[in-house]
Amino acid sequence: MLKVDGISEPGSVLVPNQDRWGFKKDLAWVVDGATNLDGTSVSPDGDDGAWIAEATHRFLLNWDSSSNSALQDSLIKLSDSLASDYMHWTQAANITPLMQPSAALAVIRLTDSEIEYLLLGDCSITFLNPIEHSFTLLTPTDLGRLDQIAIQELAGFMRQGLSFSEAKEAVNPTLQRHRRMMNQNHGYWIFGLESSAIGHAVHGRLPVDEGSIFVLASDGFSRIWDTYNMLQPGWNTYHEIERKGLASVLERLRATERQDFDAIKWPRLKISDDASVVVAKVAIGD
Fold first, then answer.
1. What range(s) does the PPM-type phosphatase domain occupy (predicted)?
2. Which of 101, 141, 174, 213 would disulfide-bridge 52, Cβ 3.0–4.6 Å?
């Protein structure tokens, strides 16, 4: 079984948290929703990014993960169902990428002495091997690469004297251009309303032992090592979580963001992003 702890916090009290995390005996996940960019919300929730994250979260909670059902096949069915619902709400003949919500996804499933993993978008999974005291960081890179292009553009505008909000407005055409590259070979792959994206997930299996550890994170939490360099990925982050607790580590992240409230020291697309992390330890004998 998996012994799991986790935490999620919105980046702002002004908007809903579009992250979700959860677990069952043999399954754990982080979902990071992203709203559509056309400025129109059509889901009953009133926030399409939160809607797709919650729907995915509820699906995984209710999914019979102990069955022989393939994780990828089950997510394909979910994607098709979400697309059907969304088409009904929009009443549109065609849903363009700017009209679509999406969700980055990190899922692990324990099967016998293996962990099956699946990643889409910019979530990450870190596998910590307690026997070799090594770690492997798994994360797709395409979306992060595109975000870095926008961040460098934003930083350039701010060096010219624009405020963060003005610079963010100035990079909107770039963000929209990148969103049009969603679920295309020259762009990035993410979970959403196009089930074909599931076939492009980072997916595989890892042999595990008693005490193997997995850290699943949304990109709002992984800033702690890939943006602010507060901690290093792998054992350094895990030991800090073990010593201080998840809430304390997350508050340290938020304190760093508050100190750089205008995104001058660390240019980024959001001052504070929704942040979620799950720590899952394998307990084979339980």
1. 16-233
2. 101
